[in-house]
């Protein structure tokens, strides 16, 4: 498969993750008013760790594909994001297998740190005239 095909897959996957997040938030709000939404919310809640593990594993596989197969050299900020993201794949998979709902104590700090780097990285790419030593 080509890098273009993989990029299309990961783009669709990212949009699906965002759509799933929006739908989950809407479901959380709707369950307060509609009994049927409560049942659906509970079903999704039972699968949440597996869904999170799948997302983390696909994201890790995608970043490894770009660096190891497509030979895109990651910048420093990409590495910082990976340092925060790669453990999530392992932690969430183990938590899903064990049914450990308290895994959020371990994954939220990693996710917040990774999100901070990702936000900074995205704004650097959006506004490249900042004179940063990253992403040259």
Q: How would you describe the overall organization of this protein?
A:
- The mean pLDDT is 87.
- The chain is globular and about 50 Å long.
- It is 80% helix and 0% strand.
- The protein has 136 residues and is an all-alpha fold.
- The relative contact order is 0.09.
- It has helices at residues 3-30, 35-69, 76-98, 104-126.
In short:
9% of the residues are buried. The chain has 136 residues and is an all-alpha fold. It contains four helices and no strands.
Show the helix and strand layout.
Blueprint: H1 3-30, H2 35-69, H3 76-98, H4 104-126
What's the average pLDDT? 87
Main sheet: strands, sense, barrel = none
Low-confidence stretches: none
In N-to-C order, the SSE pattern is HHHH
Residues in helix, %: over 70%
* β-sheet strand percentage: under 5%
So what's the overall shape?
A: globular
Give the termini separation: 28 Å
Structural class: mainly alpha
């Amino acid at each position: 498969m080509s890098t273009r095909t993989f990029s299309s897959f990961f783009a669709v996957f990212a949009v699906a993750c965002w759509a799933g997040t929006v739908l989950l938030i809407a479901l959380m709000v709707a369950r307060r008013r509609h009994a049927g939404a409560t049942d659906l919310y509970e079903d999704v809640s039972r699968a949440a760790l597996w869904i999170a593990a799948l997302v983390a594993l696909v994201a890790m596989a995608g970043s490894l594909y770009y660096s190891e197969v497509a030979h895109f050299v990651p910048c420093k900020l990409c590495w910082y994001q990976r340092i925060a993201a790669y453990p999530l794949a392992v932690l969430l998979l183990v938590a899903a297998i064990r049914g450990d709902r308290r895994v959020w104590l371990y994954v939220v700090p990693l996710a917040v740190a990774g999100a901070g780097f990702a936000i900074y990285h995205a704004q650097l790419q959006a506004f490249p005239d900042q004179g940063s030593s990253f992403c040259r």
